[in-house]
Design a protein that fits this description.
Blueprint (H helix, E strand, L loop, with lengths): L8 H9 L6 E9 L3 E9 L7 H10 L10 E4 L13 H9 L1
Parallel strand pairs: 2-3
Antiparallel strand pairs: 1-2
Length: 98
């Protein structure tokens, strides 16, 4: 929830998947003193990432309300998964705390 508005990670993920070169993504909410929570996107693109962060955020801004735009985009080589192949968002939350 951002500023009292519900934000669904899946909605943000679906927009990020429309961006060219994104192979996988996961969005989580991280605590924010002013807004309650802010979305953070973890993305795997399998290639070069330089310059993509700014372009991705600009792309997302054009499709979603400002409060739904991720606070940060973190490019990772792979998203953590359990034995069944499900993305472990709890592990991603641990990474944002560090």
């Amino acid at each position: 929830m951002v500023n009292g508005n519900n934000v669904y990670p899946r909605e943000i993920e679906e927009v990020i998947y429309q961006f060219p070169g994104i192979k996988e993504t996961a969005v989580i909410g991280v605590p924010d003193a002013r807004r309650g929570e802010r979305p953070v996107a973890f993305c795997h693109c399998g290639g070069r990432t330089s310059g993509r962060r700014k372009a991705l955020l600009q792309f997302v801004r054009g499709k979603l309300a400002d409060y739904k735009v991720p606070k940060r985009v973190v490019f990772v080589s792979a998203l953590p998964r359990n034995a069944m192949g499900k993305i472990l968002k709890t592990e991603l939350r641990k990474q944002t705390v560090q």
